[in-house]
Every structure is written in C-alpha cells, then in structure tokens.
Design a protein that fits this description.
Strand order of the largest sheet: 1-2-3
Number of strands: 3
Order of helices and strands: EEE
Mean pLDDT: 96
Shape: elongated
Radius of gyration: 16 Å
Largest sheet: 3 strands, antiparallel
Oligomer: single chain
Strand content: over 45%
Number of helices: 0
Length: 56
C-alpha cells in the first residue's frame, strides 16, 4: 500500500527588515518497504529543514 501521512512542526521568526528564518521537523508514516529506492535509501525518513528568506 503506497498511502501515507506526513506532518511537520515548525517555528519561524520575521525581523523588521523583511528577513525570515524558519526551522521545521518533518516526518511521515510511509512504509519503508514501499518507499526505499533502488540504492536502498529510505525516502520517507524524518528531517529538520532550515530556511532563510528575504522580502524586498
């Protein structure tokens, strides 16, 4: 079965000069047997994601 649920939990902070920093934890309940690629790497592993953006 290829169905799954994914989720994330994150925080962001925006400063007055238009700079925003974000940090999120993402994960899924994807089946390891279904979502492992040909190199044996599980594509549904959890990760922390940091981003930095600017608005101008």
């Amino acid at each position: 079965d290829g169905s799954y649920t994914d989720w994330s939990l994150g925080l962001s902070k925006t400063w007055g000069n238009g700079i925003t920093a974000s940090l999120a934890y993402v994960d899924t309940n994807a089946d390891r047997q279904v979502y492992t690629n040909g190199d044996g790497r599980y594509m549904g592993r959890a990760a922390a994601i940091f981003s930095l953006s600017a608005a101008f």
